[in-house]
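Reviewer 2 asked us to include a model.

Predict the structure of this chain.
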Amino acid sequence: MHYLEAIFKVLVVGLIFGAGLPAVFAGGLVAYSNGAGGISDDGATISPNPVLKALGLLLFVLVGAIVLLAILWITKDVIAHHTGIKIFEPLGLK
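Predicted model (structure tokens):
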């Protein structure tokens, strides 16, 4: 049963990061492009929506922060070995 639980956890994390992050990034692209304004198909001018642009930028920052934290998590032992800085220990994570 222990192996099945571990496999399930890996599957869930893989789905979240494997499909979730690209979906959040795509949502940011849609929000940012819809907030940019422009000209519609019938020639009408669409005014920019700063709320959608800000939402798009917020989603981009969120994805970037998650990617940066993941890289730091993967390399935390190497960073600690070469610099002595233990990045996640003050947070109680090892």
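The mean pLDDT is 89. Residues 13-91 form one domain. We have added this to the supplementary material.
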